[in-house]
Amino acid sequence: MIVLHYTAMATTEAALERLCDAQAEVSAHYLICPHGRVWHLVEEGARAWHAGAGQWGDVTDVNSRSIGIELANTGAHPFSEPQMAALEGVMAGIMARWDIAPARVIAHSDMAPARKSDPGPRFDWRRLARQGLSIWPELGAGGEATAAQFARDAGRFGYIRAEGVSDADILRAFRLRFRPHVTGPLEPEDCAMMADLAARFAVDRTAPSA
To answer: Could you tell me the pTM of the whole model?
Structure first.
């Protein structure tokens, strides 16, 4: 998989220093600054400490099954054009080298919905999907617009209601990525979009977890 993050730090330099500090016990394969400069910090075949506790589908050790990309951003600012262009180039190379499908590109908040928000509501997932670097749901007729059906479809897509993760956490993570400006109770549009994701991009539940 590829997991996308924001650094949530004031400057790129501060983020780079932390990612290179062994005492911090945090690392990522790539760091990309707003000007489009890319730092390759960990070899792609090596395990970096970027994901932490969480799960996507049956994968519980996400660090061992993913490449982590950190985007220098506080979480409150737009992602610049040079940064997005650099990210797209990095992702295209990784996906070709490791045969990663667009559905296997996820947000940190997808695999840790109770504790993470990155890359956040300002990140343009639809832009990546248009280039085949991620996915985007379509709105069809939808199915049953109930909380129970939404939860079932969310599980098929990859969101796992593990210990400490509530249905509200999963709805929040889903909306951060696909409906970032929507708040409030579950809506029929949430259900229709999740049903489409589950139907077209059901997570591989037979893959090994590490």
So the answer is: 0.94
